[in-house]
Design brief:
mainly alpha, single chain, 193 residues, disordered N terminus
Length: 193
């Protein structure tokens, strides 16, 4: 007779997040990004969302969700906040989108490296934020806007992303607990691999 020790929890294929739960989580993050755009006047925490996506879903899904977040952010900015419809603003919008996608890819690479999960997530946030800001700085050199790259502004935006990321971790844990009966196992940031 074969017995199983139920005290040892082994993650098997049935305990992996399903496609439905991955999609649901990506939609939740997209809605959080949209909500952030509306609440804090288009200061969407793209880097926090990039790391949260990269730590929980496949890169292709993460990039698609980030594209949806960026596109919705642009729509909100131009339609609801009446951003001027100029070539310069359109180019800035494209640069922000490209920087957000690059930050997502960078986060995915960092998270896949060895080390404790919290270290990888924190390092992914730092690296992604640095890449995001460097891309925008390069854009400012071409399109103008260098005055927005003061240490105070960069630190403030970094803090916004850090706080949002902490909130996204809490949201992720809450979704994992409350939605288990509907979604089964959900992708977990604190178990990112």
């Amino acid at each position: 007779m074969i017995t199983h020790d139920r005290s040892m929890k082994v993650l098997d294929a049935t305990e992996q997040p399903s496609a439905v739960s991955n999609l649901a989580w990506a939609i939740i993050l997209t809605l959080a990004g949209v909500g952030g755009s509306l609440v804090i006047s288009c200061v969407t925490p793209f880097v926090a969302l990039a790391v949260a996506l990269a730590g929980t879903v496949r890169l292709r899904v993460a990039l698609r969700a980030m594209s949806a977040i960026w596109l919705t952010n642009q729509f909100i900015g131009f339609v609801f906040f009446h951003f001027p419809r100029t070539t310069n603003n359109a180019l800035w919008g494209l640069a922000i989108g490209a920087a957000a996608l690059l930050a997502t890819a960078a986060a995915s690479i960092v998270i896949k490296r060895a080390g404790p999960t919290l270290f990888r997530l924190g390092f992914a946030l730092l690296i992604s934020y640095s890449i995001y800001q460097m891309m925008l700085l390069a854009t400012a050199l071409v399109l103008g806007g260098l005055e927005t790259f003061s240490p105070h502004v960069i630190a403030q935006l970094g803090l916004i992303n850090l706080v949002w990321f902490a909130g996204l971790i809490a949201l992720n844990e809450l979704v994992a607990i409350l939605c288990k009966t509907w979604l089964g196992v959900t992708p977990r940031l604190l178990q990112a691999s």
